[in-house]
Design goal:
The protein is α+β, with helices and mostly antiparallel strands and about 350 residues long. It folds into two domains: about 1-165, no CATH class; about 170-345, no CATH class. The chain is about 15% helix and about 35% strand. The chain has seven helices and 23 strands. Strand 10 and strand 11 form a beta hairpin.
Length: about 350
């Protein structure tokens, strides 16, 4: 038997701060003799079809449907590894022999695991985390409805924000893979990668273009598009249509981006990927940047399936800067004249 002091610290769960006072954990040297914290979960982990995070009014619901999804974000896909890691950690957790004692205010995060019938396989609160003396890994403390307490080695990830779980990149296509990009502007702007891969030609030509920055910005509109929000596709019925932008890669991918603007002036996009004949271009004649970015036919096929999974049946929120790039017209090219504008405006995880 050993008694380990849990060091004071501060942890973040979702948007809430977890303040830990001096906690004391009493446990066995042989963890295998301790009772499972969630016996039903340990035996039926695959039966979990929904995870509800947070309290009423501030919940996030994850559902299992062809992979894990954000139920409240039009079924946008979740990083499955995070969910499976959470379930595995809970299934392996063991009850501590005595309750943890803590002083000071506590903020907790509720977690409920449900079956397809809505039954709870687990319903508990994460009450904090901290360090154990003599142990590098942090410890997560869990409070059960019956008053029991269990601990898990490691910091348990269970935030109730969509960004905590969502696949971060909606799409990320390098500008140097782009053979042709046509904006949704009226009239549109078209950029075409030069045969020698040295840059992009603009159609129609414009005196507003100085150097390569503007053409590369248009070609790079699909770089680092991060998830921020999603709506069902039918939510766009009353929105303003901004047009369709089209992007064709050197290696056989075409993406059509349909853009809409809601009453709050936020812009949403629906992406439709499909195969396209690869550009008949000798690889050695491409620029070194293009050679490093182009994909094999098998990788392009996987990319099409991935983008379709993230966009099918839903609208995805894009930043104002991305919307501006995708809808630029010949008369508004000067709006893209600042080289750092898009880089400083886009935010990633």
């Amino acid at each position: 038997m050993r008694t380990l002091p849990l060091l004071a610290g501060v942890g973040v769960i979702g948007a809430g701060l977890i303040g830990l006072a001096a906690l004391t954990l009493t446990g066995n040297d042989d963890g295998d003799t301790a009772m499972p914290a969630f016996p039903a979960l340990a035996q039926h982990q695959d039966a979990v079809t929904a995870i509800v995070l947070g309290d009423e009014g501030q919940t996030l619901r994850l559902t299992r449907e062809n992979g894990w999804r954000l139920a409240d974000k039009a079924g946008y896909p979740v990083e499955n590894e995070k969910v499976e890691g959470l379930l595995a950690a809970l299934a392996q957790s063991r009850l501590s022999e005595t309750p943890l004692q803590a002083s000071g205010s506590q903020t907790s995060q509720r977690v409920r695991l449900e079956t397809e019938q809505g039954e709870a396989l687990a319903d508990f609160r994460i009450i904090g985390w901290g360090g154990v003396a003599g142990q590098i890994e942090p410890v997560t403390a869990i409070s059960h409805a019956d008053g029991g307490v269990s601990t898990i080695t490691g910091r348990l990830m269970a935030g109730n924000q969509a960004e905590d779980w969502a696949e971060p990149h909606v799409v990320d296509i390098s500008r140097w893979r782009i053979a042709q990009a046509v904006t949704a502007g009226d009239p549109p702007v078209e950029v075409v990668q030069r045969p020698d891969g040295s840059g992009f030609n603009l159609q129609p030509e414009s005196s507003a273009v100085e150097g390569e920055w503007i053409t590369q910005t248009i070609a790079g509109a699909l770089e680092r598009i991060y998830f921020s929000d999603a709506l069902p596709l039918e939510a766009g019925a009353g929105m303003e249509e901004l047009g369709e932008a089209r992007y064709t890669t050197l290696d056989g991918l075409r993406i059509t981006a349909r853009l809409l603007r809601d009453n709050e002036k936020q812009v949403w996009v629906h992406l439709e990927p499909q195969p396209s004949p690869p550009i008949n271009q000798d690889r050695e004649s491409m620029s070194l940047m293009a050679q490093a970015q182009v994909k094999s036919p098998e990788d392009v096929e996987r990319e099409i399936a991935q983008v379709r999974d993230r966009s099918a049946g839903r609208l995805l929120r894009v930043s104002d800067v991305t919307a501006m790039v995708m809808t630029v017209t010949p008369g508004s090219l000067d709006r893209l004249s600042q080289p750092t504008e898009r880089q400083t405006s886009e935010e990633g995880p």
